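Q: Could you write out the predicted structure for this multi-component system? I'm mainly interested in how the pieces pack against one another.
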Amino acid sequence: MDQEQGFLGVLTSSPFRIAIVYSVVFAFGAVALLGAVYFAVSRVIDGSTDNLIAAEVQGLREQLLVLSRSDFIELVNQRSRDQDVHGAFYLMVDPQLRPVAGNLPAWPKIAAGQGKWFQFTVTVPYGDQTRVHEVRAQRFPLPGGYRMLVGHDVQERQDVKNVMMRGLVAAVVMTMLLGIGGGIWMGRRILAHAGAISAVATQIMRGDLTQRLPVRDAEDELNTLAREINGMLDKIEQLTLGMRTVLDSAAHDLRTPLNRLQSTAESALAHLDPASPERRVLERVTTEVDRMRNTLDALLRIALAETGTVAREAVDLSALVASIVELYAPVTEERGIELGSQVAAGAHIQGSRQLLAQALANLLDNAIKFTPVGGHIRVLLRNESGGPEVVVEDDGPGIPADKRELALGRRVRLDEARKVPGSGLGLSLVAAVTKLHGARLVLTDAGPGLRVALQFAMG
Amino acid sequence: MHILIVEDDQVARDYLAKALREVGHTVDVAVNGLDGLQLASSIALDLAIVDRMLPKLDGLALVQSLRATGRKFPVLILSALGDVDDRITGLRAGGDDYLTKPYHMSELMARIDALARRGELGGGEAATRLKLADLELDRMTRRVTRGGKKIELTAREFQLLEFLMRHSGQVVTRTMLLEGVWDYHFDPQTNVIDVHISRLRQAIDRDFEKPLLHTVRGAGYSLGEEE
């Protein structure tokens, strides 16, 4: 696995996806929670400023009733000086909007349509420099066309809101980052474990039943699963070994008496006159022993291939197909059949060279059997991107579509085939060998004739 | 030759011993692996035929012990298992050839002769020029001549001829050819080897008076000067 694929693998892994979903959910949660706090706090601090201003306005209005204008001006100026430090602003202007009292230099521009509450900015000293502050204010008319403004610096409250907003954004970003980071970390961990499991599983499928899944110290679902699968593998290995033992003893128990029969017949034959009738009988015995041996060999090889316990090696499929074609070329020519081949170079698979060779030989034996003089047999090896494909096709009678499945079964000889010699196990062996190699066996109509394709998977 | 047979099946053992004695070999027999190992370690042998599954000491273990103690005579393993992998384990254990039951006596005899010849040559595989009567084969230049005339052969025909020349004067079976030249261990249902041989025969015998490549009925082929 190269770096990019590894990273993509993490991104598509299920823990990463779950982490992303959760971090989005948590981010929404953070927005909701902090948003509510922001809203509530805003209301409280907004409300307290407004109350403060409203109380001040109320107080001034009451004073208005009892004080003369000059006293009121004096009061406003006094309040201005007192409240200066607390950020309160007062301004009293005459009908021409000229300041009469207070601590603001000029009547602010007030946009049309504003009610008695409004906001404006002032420049205030801030250390050696100045800052522009937001001021919230209320205005009210005074007798004689004079106007009064009472305001309060709300920059502080804006600052609080800004800090809260920044905190909210940061919290959401952090949640997302933690989620993604955690997802990648978990994804990698799980992928590393799953990768180890899948590597071992591949080896097991290739027939190495001694392999076991890695189990770490931690107690998690993957480990429990790995442990259970290992238990299952122990069982499978036992069964396969048992099957192998049964096969071996069956082979031994059948081959030994056959060998005795062969020995006895041959030993008797050696002393018989070439023309004697007993000789013909014994020769038939040895012919039948040969036939039984062929059937037994084929059956045992099929069974062996089906247990999947055959040793694998690197097989140069291109060289193998070319060599089988070369082996069969003279015999097809002698029988008046044209054998064509197209073998792509560089096809390699893991498998049993002997069993593959025999499977190919069986396909060619079959093709030769059923192809009439003047017919054609074609052998192709294509190195497809998905894996190599070997095709053997002839223009003989073929197999009807409804009987193709049947033909792969054990000991099935279609009626048309009964007149030609053979054990009827040829295609069964091809099917078992194909399965052993994790390949697909596809029988199709070559129009006319049979087309058999062995499609191997990559690697 | 002095041959040891280690075989627990009495019928097979008796017939094998009798057949080998008839063609002039000295034969000793053992009925189990331990006796076999004792005999093989104590007498000078030219060849041993060892059954794969033996009582007391398994055939493979027997061969391994022999090899471990430096006994180098050729060993032919007989097996009633006989499959793709069993053959490989047999040869890896130190066997020189592997034959599955039931076998034809002609096949066994041909293989014994081939093993004995290999022993005599003492790994003469290295010889670059092979010669039989007026037929010559040069492995380096890949040139074949008969009576000084160059004979054109395909790569496979060349290998086939080389194999036959190494075993000249002996019977070589079809199975031995398929194993030795193509490295395949199965019996094709079509007479593929016969046709290859007949092509080779065309090439080396057609234009000459005395045929060198003979068919041995019921056994195989033989390359040699006289019938």
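A: Regarding packing and overall arrangement: Residues 14-66 of chain A form the longest helix (53 residues).
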